[in-house]
Amino acid sequence: MNPHLRFDAQTHQLTGPAGSLAIAASDQLARRFLMLMEGQCLQNNIADVAQKYGFCRQRYYQILHAFKQGGLPAVEPQKTGPQSNYRRTDQIVRQVLRYRFLDPDASPEVIAQKLRQTHFSISLRSVHRIIADFGLQKKTLRAQPKKSPTSTARSTRRKTPTPGTGRRAQPGTSGSPTPGR
Question: What tens digit of pLDDT does each residue of 16-30 get?
Fold first, then answer.
């Protein structure tokens, strides 16, 4: 590698004697590879090179080891954080569902308390999530506005006539014709 080649971390430009190459700030793989090239090929101070790229000296060597073991794909940043639900295990989910089906009126607070009493470490929020995931939350009924007695009386009086019945009495029956509107 040419000693005149350098990477500017501020502008994200790799600059050499013939020109420059822009490296996207979001391209972590390229930045890690450039750090390794600069640290291994230009004989610069490793701590300074790592700091320039936003890493510590120890992390530089971890990335270098990964590169030596698996090449460029091994240097790619991995997803951080928990890889599984370590609180909401299958056994706890089964227990929440069991308590919910045994007593459908049991609140999530009661279910969480029962689980804690049986030495399961779970929060109320986790119980809420399990219940929501399986669609077992209680249906809330909306309060219907009460109808006034006058409106119900009007609705019962105004019925549509059944087909075949007219306003006049049928022949052969006694009585007068039914009144009009």
Answer: 888 888 888 888 898
